[in-house]
Amino acid sequence: MFVSVGLIAFGLAMSAHPWPSKEGQQTLEERFEAPIGYQRLEQSKKSFGAWLRTLPIKSGRPLVRLHNGRLKDNQEAQVAVIDIDVGKKDLQQCADAAIRLRAEYLWSSNRKSDVCFRYTSGDAASWSDWSKGIRARINKNKVLWSKRAKPNFSYQSFRKYLDSVFMYAGTYSLTRELQRVRDTTKVMPGDLFIKGGFPGHAVIVLDVVVDKAGNRRFLLGQSYMPAQEMHILKNPKHRTPWYFARESGRLETPEYRFTYSDLRRFQEKGCP
């Protein structure tokens, strides 16, 4: 069954995104049509995949900027740039971009209690604790938690919480949180291709289309090092940015090589 789930079905207007972005921009779904012979994969109205399709996209093909406003060296990887802030510090890199999108989805879906990610140490850092004023103190290899701030449930506090996660988490910790996708031909929006390491790399599946035979294709987005604007990747092996889902083999992106076995999926609740 083919269903294209967009802004109306999801019940969100672009203004529902709490970060600053320009009015009247195209959404990801509006900007990227499905290839001929494909339709968007059905997604439930409140799913992560439906939400990702509402992401605002900057007009044209702008240059990718770093956290400090400078231009990224390689300007040949992107076909489009997502209109979401990168912050002022070198924090929101590859795994952090996926964490940011997942956290923003949970926030926008009134699932704030599910926002939780693990530091590289394995310690769980939840928004629920942060909002109550509980903070981490790093002592050598130990993470000590104590109430050191006033309760603050605002979005501004939420962004500070995410910056703390970006600082102490990465591809190594995120890989351990995610579920392995056994059948990589069944890739879903919101999945990640991720290689955990120091630094490793991660890219996020932003959308998926399917043909009548059940074959799937997908769009990929990333940030990278240094922290930079999230952008939608070219497919270096094809004339469109849609990648092909396969059972195995290499997945070549403009700046990193994965294998299809690197596919992982967020669990419903954070910090399993």
Question: Can you give keywords for this protein?
Answer:
7 helices, two-stranded antiparallel ribbon, disordered N terminus, 24% strand, nine-stranded antiparallel beta sheet, alpha+beta, 15 strands
Describe the structure.
The chain has helices spanning 7-10, 28-31, 48-52, 94-108, 127-131, 155-168, 171-177; strands spanning 38-40, 78-81, 116-118, 124-126, 134-139, 142-147, 179-180, 192-196, 200-211, 216-222, 231-233, 243-244, 250-252, 257-259, 263-265. It is an alpha+beta fold. The chain folds into two domains: 7-88 and 179-265, no CATH class; 94-175, no CATH class. The strands form four sheets. Strands 1, 2, 7, 8, 9, 10, 11, 12 and 15 form a nine-stranded antiparallel β-sheet that branches. A two-stranded antiparallel sheet has the order 3-4. Strands 5-6 form a two-stranded antiparallel sheet. The model is unreliable at 1-15 (pLDDT under 50).
Number of domains: 2
**Low-confidence residue ranges:** 1-15
> Shape, please?
globular
Helix content: 10-25%
Summarize the structure.
The chain is α+β, with helices and mostly antiparallel strands and 272 residues long. 20% of the residues lie in helices and 24% in strands.
Write the topology of this structure:
Blueprint: H1 7-10, H2 28-31, E1 38-40, H3 48-52, E2 78-81, H4 94-108, E3 116-118, E4 124-126, H5 127-131, E5 134-139, E6 142-147, H6 155-168, H7 171-177, E7 179-180, E8 192-196, E9 200-211, E10 216-222, E11 231-233, E12 243-244, E13 250-252, E14 257-259, E15 263-265
Antiparallel strand pairs: 1-9, 2-11, 3-4, 5-6, 7-15, 8-9, 8-15, 9-10, 10-11, 10-12, 13-14
